[in-house]
Amino acid sequence: MNTNRIPTHPGDVIKEELEYRGISQKKFSELTGVSYTMLNEILNGKRPVTSDFALIVEAALGVSPQLLINMQARYNMAVAMNQTTFLSRLDHIRRACAAVF
Fold it and tell me: Is the pLDDT assigned to residue 30 strictly greater than 80?
């Protein structure tokens, strides 16, 4: 089940929220105690949103942490389902287990 379109990374939502409110990454980093590098990587989809970070975002911006974590899970699943090497491994596991069970 390859997905042609990868779901939105939750960092995009947070990035748009910061821009809408006129809050710079540097200011948000300072206010929340999150390193600027980590924040920037999350906002650019290079690092996942963790439960801790989602709770920090909720405390700072009021964005639902469950929304962010669900978005991250959908994103992770779509990325995994688009990795041909991993899909081949899953196919091998399915065939091997079908022969045993």
Answer: yes
Judge whether 88 lies within some domain: no
Structural domain of 31: 10-75
Give residue-wise pLDDT tens across range 36-67: 999 999 999 999 999 999 999 999 999 999 99
Domain count across the chain: 1
By CB atoms closer than 10 A (0-12, 13-18, 19+), residue 84 is exposed
- 87 φ, ψ to 5°? -65, -35
SS3 state at 3: coil
Residues 92 and 86: their CA atoms lie apart, in Å, by 10
CATH of the domain at 68: 1.10.260.40
Residue 40 phi/psi, 5-degree rounding, is -60, -40
